[in-house]
Design a protein that fits this description.
164 residues; two-stranded antiparallel sheet
Length: 164
């Protein structure tokens, strides 16, 4: 009878341990299912982002960060108006050089300084919240000439004058 009692006790202990192991395994499986569901949700969000126009907005934000005030850019003149020139920048963005930012000397007609399809290098002087890019050839040239303006000044015939 003692052998039978020992066998029953052994069986009961084994059953309890096995139940504990099963509960631990169930908890572990539940954690894995939760992690898997989280990853699936992340992937679905990324897929939506890639398929939506949000991706275009994201790319535009990155491009806007690369263009910052003070950076030097190259581009091609795509339009001339009485008030300035429109320049297509590398990367497809469009900037504008106001007539007052073309030269250190007075500019009466922008067409005397710039032509359509001309390659230009300019300095970014501002980017509006709407993404409008203001450019300046004048400020770039002033920076490159150590603070001196080149060309004829309106006030005098001096070739080089300090920038004030």
């Amino acid at each position: 009878m003692i052998v039978f009692a020992v066998a029953v006790c052994y069986f009961l202990i084994s059953f309890i341990v096995m139940q504990s192991d099963i509960k631990s395994q169930e908890k572990y499986n539940a954690q894995l299912r939760t992690q898997l569901a989280d990853k699936k949700a992340e992937n679905e969000e990324l897929e939506k982002l890639v398929k939506s126009s949000d991706l275009d907005d994201y790319v535009e934000q990155i491009a806007r960060r690369e263009l910052e005030q003070g950076s030097v850019v190259k581009g091609k003149v795509t339009g001339l108006t009485d008030f300035g020139a429109f320049v297509e920048l590398e990367g497809g963005k469009t900037g504008m050089i106001h007539i007052s930012e073309v030269s250190t000397s007075y500019v009466k007609d922008i067409r005397e300084h710039l032509q359509l399809n001309q390659e230009v290098t300019a300095k970014v002087i501002s980017i509006s919240p709407e993404g409008k890019i203001a450019l300046s050839i004048k400020k770039l040239n002033a920076d490159n000439n150590g603070g001196y303006q080149t060309g004829r000044s309106r006030q005098s015939g001096d070739f080089r004058q300090p920038v004030l």
